Amino acid sequence: MPIEATAHLPNVVNWRRAVSGQIGARDRWSAGDHGPMSTTPLAASPRIAWADVPRLVQDAVERELGSPIRSAITQDGGFSPGTAVRVVCEDGRRAFVKAVGLALNPDSPGMHRAELHAMSLLPDELPAPALLAAYDDGDWVALVLEDIDGRRPDLPWQGSDVAAMSLALAQLARTEAPGQLPAFADIVSMLTSWDEVAADPAGIDDALLGRLDEMAAAQSLARNVTPGTALVHWDARADNVLIRGGRAVLLDWAWASRGAPWLDSLLLAMDFRIQGGPDADEFLRASACTRDVEPQHLRSAVVCMVGFWAERARRPSPPGLPTIRAWQAHCRDHALHWIDDGGLWS
User: Fold this and answer.
1) I need a surface site. Which of 14, 53, 147, 159 has the fewest CB within 10 A?
2) Cα dist. 186→117, 196, 223, 226, 262 in Å?
3) Is 24 left (phi over 0), alpha (psi -120 to 50) or beta?
4) What is the secondary structure of 3-54 as a DSSP string?
5) Which pTM value belongs to this model?
């Protein structure tokens, strides 16, 4: 989901704290480590190896780590054609590094810049990896992050992982978003997707086109109910979280924004529908973030998800992302079923 890049940042930027010593055991998962997870279409695109990253980018990362990189293990998954590697330095230090250049995909460096901008603003107590350093030469952008000692949630989603994720999202919902973050409506395109479909219906199923008035009305409602001042992550899927010590750590902050405090819990419930887990409607009834929200407000946001996924799934695959349209079509179908059979709003 491409967005506009934030302001250009200097070549190497240090944030939060210097790289610490060795963290955890060799066999853990790390931030950005997206392994095979279910029988649904893969939420992943092919990645380049660390060896394919330009030498000047590698040199800058090694300078920030304070030691040459001895090994770099590619982590599969996620919708970026760039590298995503767990690195171990010659002095034993570890980190997670993600990097991408314009030639791989013209939008992906902007996504990394957006994540860098967001992570530089996050309070230290939030459930996020530490941002250790960054590099930006106007073409290639690299983020150096804490290597998380954690594991992926079990799928279908299970009770203890759902509880951990719920606590993390509740913490975000209670957090006032930094004013420098964009408003939710300014960072997502789902609040205008049905307008795009109405203006150009090519490639959209006739059954959906027959419901345009209904979808447009729900989109209008969503525009009114999604603004807010809470910190919103807006990518709270199973492949963007690690469980560490019974607590959830949220990854991939490119979509961080200011919005309604219930948005992330709704997206998590959507992930239950897509990848399996507890009953999504019962989850929304019980969650402290959503139980007092008018059900039609929640449904209106899901209608916008349908519009976004339907509008994007009809497009050609973008450079370096050959699997994203199949994933979006899969998500569209699950969201459409939910708006029609959801027990919370039926």
Assistant:
1) 159
2) 15, 16, 11, 11, 17
3) left
4) ----S---SEEE-SS---S--S-TT-B-TT------SSPPSB-----GGGS-
5) 0.86
Nearest to 173 by CA among 64, 290, 65: 290
Residue 16's CB is within 10 A of a number of other CB atoms, namely 14
Residue 138 DSSP class: S
- Dig out the tokens for 299 from the structure: 């449904």
Q: CA-CA distance, 76 to 74, in Å (whole number)?
A: 6
Domain spans of the chain, in order of start: 12-145, 159-341
Sorted by sequence, the CB contacts under 8 Å of residue 310 that are 6+ apart come out as 193, 197, 204, 205, 208, 332
Q: Does domain 159-341 have CATH number 3.90.1200.10?
A: yes
Q: For the chain, what is the radius of gyration of the CA atoms?
A: 20
pLDDT (tens, 9 = 90+) of the chain, 346 residues, equals: 332 233 333 333 333 333 333 223 222 333 333 333 345 566 666 789 999 999 999 999 999 999 999 999 887 766 778 999 999 999 999 999 999 999 998 999 999 999 999 999 999 999 999 999 999 999 999 999 999 988 889 999 999 999 999 999 999 999 999 999 999 999 999 999 999 999 999 999 999 999 999 999 999 999 999 999 999 999 988 888 999 999 999 999 999 999 999 999 999 999 999 999 999 999 999 999 999 999 999 999 999 999 999 999 999 988 888 888 999 999 999 999 999 999 999 8
- The alpha helices in 48-158, defined as continuous H runs, are 55-65, 108-119
- What CATH number should be reported for the domain whose range is 12-145? 3.30.200.20
